[in-house]
Structures are given as C-alpha cells and as structure tokens.
Design brief:
Blueprint: H1 2-5, H2 10-15, E1 19-24, E2 27-31, E3 37-45, E4 48-56, H3 62-77, H4 82-96, H5 100-111, H6 126-131, H7 133-136, H8 146-157, H9 161-180, H10 189-197, H11 215-221, H12 227-238, H13 242-246, E5 253-254, E6 257-260, E7 275-278, H14 281-290, H15 310-319, H16 328-340, H17 345-351, H18 359-365, H19 370-384
C-alpha cells in the first residue's frame, strides 16, 4: 500500500519533464515544464470529482504534499468537502489575526511618536494591558460589544474611576484603529458601554497636603543630610513629582537648570518635550550635598540597588505622624503662588509641569517662562528656609 501511495521520488519531481504524474491516492504532480509544477489532489466528494490545489513544487516539497493530501483525504472520509473546509479554516485564521491584543499593540505602535519617550514608560498601554487584555485580549476585535466592555470594566468603574476611564478611553482608540485597518467593528461600543456602566460613584480624594505656612518648619526638620531628608528638601524646593525627583541624575543638571527627560514627566498630554526646572540657590546647595550619596550618577540611590522608592518618602512622613504626603507639597507650592505672589495662571501651572493651552497656542507662545519661574522659585526657597516672607507681584505673562 505504501508503494502504491508513494510512486514518485524527490529526484523525479525535480527532473521530470512536462506532464501529469500520479503519486497515488489521488495526489498528482502537474509539471508545466522542466522546473515549474504544482501539486493537485483529486478527490470524490458527495459523488462529484473535485480538484484541490496543494501548492507549487517550489514551495511545497514532496513529503509535505503527501502530508497535506493525507490530511484532506481524512476530511473526505469524515463526509466533508475539503475545499470548503480549507476556506473555512482560512477565514478563521484571518479572523484570529485580528484579536484585540494584536490590534491594541498595533495601535500603540502607531501612536508611539505622539507619546513621551516613544511610550517607553508604558503609561499609555498599561491600562489596557492590566485591565482589558487579560479578559478580552483573545477575542476578535470585530466581536467585541458594549456588554463585553461593561463586564470587563465594571469592577473598576466605581472603585478606581480614573483607571477605568483611562482603560475605556484607550479601548476607544484601539477600536478606531481597527476600523482604520478595515475591520468591521462597532465604533459606538465604548459609548454604549459608558451608558451601561452609568455614573461612577467614586469620589476623588485629594492627596493630603501641608498648609504652605507650615512648610518652613517641616523643611527645617529635614536636617540630618540623609538621602531621604535631602530628597524631600529638593522635592519641596522644586515642586516636581516624586518620579523625576527620585530619578534625578547628575547629567540632567547644567549650571542652575535641571532638565527632566520627557519619559519621566507625567500629566503633560500632548507635550512630548523635556521639562526645564530652574534651581534656586538653596536647591543647588541640596544637590551639592546629595552628590556625596550618588551612585552611578543618581543622586538619591536606594540602600541596595536602583533609586529610592516613592514609599520611602511617604513612610518617612507617616513615621512623623503626618497626614500630608510628599505629592501634597505641589499643592502647598501652588496655593502659596496663588495667595502670595499673584503669579499669572500660565506661569504658576508651568512651575508644576502642567501643559497650558492647546497645541496652537503653545506653538505660538514658544516659551517655558524659565526666567519668570526662576524668580518665583528663588522667592519660594527664601520663604521655605525662613529667609523672607516678601510677597512678589508679577506682571501678566505675554506670549
């Protein structure tokens, strides 16, 4: 039987002249000339002769052609049409190529140029990766509806509203990306899911902050020269977030300006640029003292490896029986600016690293108010260190 099925040889397939040659069991070699040819499986389905192409001999070797022929003969014995079955499998395969996980990754790749640091920090993709893809990642994007989205995000909707909002927003972007790829998706699924989820019961709670008149006393208590004390001092003096503060590197400091890489910034949607922080004399003194702790250029290293964690600063304040947290010093600074300096809104917001105005407005403004901010941050340092409580009045900023 094996001999009847396997009449051809690899050498014959390669050297045979034009013609038709049977390998047995309905598998035929059709040679058009001395080099080109095709495999054809001749089968009878429901009493009707069918011819099924199995590929060119240049792409499909003899052994593979025999395996394919045997697979489809098995389908015939099962009472099915192998040609229709192959088409069904092809459609299923194409459908599976458009799983939500694959489309989401493609959407992320397409948006990288718009994100800070090409999205290396992962903030854009992480809401999808953590809260959507584990449940819906293997679902074809064309099959996703509002019920799927509601059921996926319902556990977050009332407990972690901000996270859920980011996740559903990113999912909307992915569905639009899928539509742009020509896939049949429901672009209204996200809006309909929002309607099903309803209004979130979650109430945002502000991070506890130290009242600005109380900041000097706390600053004065940070006097032992440790990494934790110095980090908190610089955090207060600059008004930056914890992440860029913890990852401050000696190479980021040039004279009295600290340039924070774009990937370390947060909350600057639409702005992928670096952020310059003017350093007061007091901030420079803190940095100089921190250099003796530096490891691999990082000014605030942890005890073992890497840099200090966000919890290091928070737990220090907890041990001091304080309700306020490190992030709250940004609020202390912002209120101080509003109540004692009369600083224009755009300058005060820029001090905190916030993006002010739309893309067009920023394109024409072309300034980060560095000199105005330098004056205000020097005055803040004087206030924090108890040197001066003088009120500063700035003129309205002009683009």
């Amino acid at each position: 039987m094996a001999r009847e099925l396997h009449r051809l040889s690899t050498v014959f397939v390669r050297q045979a002249p034009a013609g038709k040659y049977a390998d047995g069991g309905g598998l035929w070699l059709h040679k058009r000339d001395g080099s080109a040819g095709q495999w054809v499986l001749r089968i009878t389905v429901h009493g009707r002769m069918r011819y099924m192409g199995l590929g060119a001999i240049a792409d499909v070797p003899l052994r593979e052609a025999r395996d394919e022929a045997n697979k489809w003969r098995t389908v015939v014995r099962g009472g099915s049409d192998p040609i229709k079955e192959r088409e069904r499998q092809r459609r299923e395969k194409e459908r599976n190529l458009h799983l939500l996980a694959d489309v989401a990754k493609d959407a992320f790749e397409s948006r990288k140029a718009e994100l800070r640091g090409d999205g290396k920090a992962g903030r854009w993709f992480s809401p999808l990766e953590l809260h959507v893809l584990p449940k819906l990642g293997k679902v074809p994007v064309a099959d996703i509806n509002q019920i799927d989205i509601r059921d996926t995000l319902a556990p977050l909707w009332h407990e972690k509203a901000a996270t859920a909002e980011k996740a559903i927003g990113r999912l909307g972007v992915v569905l639009k990306h899928a539509a742009a790829l020509g896939l049949n998706v429901d672009l209204q699924a996200v809006d309909k899911a929002r309607a099903l989820l309803g209004r979130s019961r979650h109430k945002a709670e502000n991070i506890p902050a130290l009242s600005w008149p109380d900041v000097p006393a706390f600053y004065k208590s940070l006097s032992d020269g440790s990494v934790t004390h110095l980090a908190l001092r610089l955090l207060i003096l600059t008004g930056v977030r914890s992440r860029p503060l913890r990852f401050i590197h000696a190479d980021q400091i040039d004279s009295d300006v600290w340039t924070i890489p774009a990937e370390l910034m947060k909350g600057r949607e639409g702005d992928t640029s670096e952020f310059r922080v003017p350093l007061s004399g007091e901030a420079l003194a803190v940095i100089e003292e921190a250099r003796r702790h530096a490891r691999d250029g990082f000014l605030f290293p942890s005890m073992r490896k890497g840099v200090i964690s966000d919890m290091t600063l928070s737990r220090y304040m907890e041990r001091q029986k304080m309700e306020a947290r490190p992030h709250g010093f940004r609020s202390s600074l912002r209120v101080w600016l509003a109540e004692t300096t009369g600083a224009p809104h755009e300058i005060a917001e820029t001090i905190l690293g916030h993006v002010v105005g739309g893309k067009v407005e920023r394109a024409y403004r072309r300034t980060d108010f560095l000199e105005q901010r330098r004056m205000l941050m020097e005055r803040w340092a004087d206030f924090v260190t108890g040197k001066s409580g003088k009120v500063v009045q700035l003129a309205e900023a002009r683009g």
